[in-house]
């Protein structure tokens, strides 16, 4: 995702994203965090493989942000926009949560976690996804945009 070295946090994040079959947009060319002489690629932008078809022109901007973090910009080809061949680009956005039961999802998640040998972050995310896939209808693909910082602790 950038930089010359990868610490334990970066390794865990890479494994988690690979487990979810995510596409990472960071190209490693420009750091996303600058503080004095220190630079890092700590801000990560990613999505599902299917949602990746909507993401264009991901860039770390160079303008002043009044923060240690650089602006990250990208374009989304939204639902109903036409592709070059005149076809609709499709839809976006996760599970349909209308009328869902949080207690059913919670129970399913706990059952899945109890069945897993490893109780790490990757297992937890997998259990959440499995519970949602089992009990919620899919709406389409989803895009996850998240800033992950070094002090993020995943148990």
Automatic annotation (TrEMBL):
On the tree of life, the source organism's domain of life is: Eukaryota
The molecular function terms of the Gene Ontology recorded here are:
catalytic activity
Which ranges carry the Endonuclease/exonuclease/phosphatase domain? 3-72
Q: Please name one Pfam family that this protein belongs to.
A: Exo_endo_phos_2
Name recorded for this polypeptide: Endonuclease/exonuclease/phosphatase domain-containing protein
């Amino acid at each position: 995702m950038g930089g010359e070295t990868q610490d334990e946090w970066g390794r865990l994040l890479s494994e988690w994203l690979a487990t979810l079959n995510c596409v990472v947009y960071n190209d490693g060319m420009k750091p996303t965090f600058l503080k004095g002489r220190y630079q890092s690629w700590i801000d990560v932008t990613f999505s599902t493989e299917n949602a990746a078809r909507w993401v264009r022109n991901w860039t770390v901007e160079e303008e002043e942000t009044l923060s240690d973090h650089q602006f990250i910009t990208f374009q989304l080809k939204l639902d109903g926009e036409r592709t070059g061949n005149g076809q609709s680009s499709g839809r976006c956005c996760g599970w349909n949560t209308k009328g869902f039961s949080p207690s059913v999802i919670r129970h399913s998640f706990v059952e899945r976690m109890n069945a897993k040998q490893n109780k790490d972050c990757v297992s937890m995310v997998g259990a959440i996804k499995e519970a949602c896939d089992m009990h919620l209808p899919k709406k389409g693909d989803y895009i996850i945009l998240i800033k992950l910082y070094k002090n993020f602790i995943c148990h």
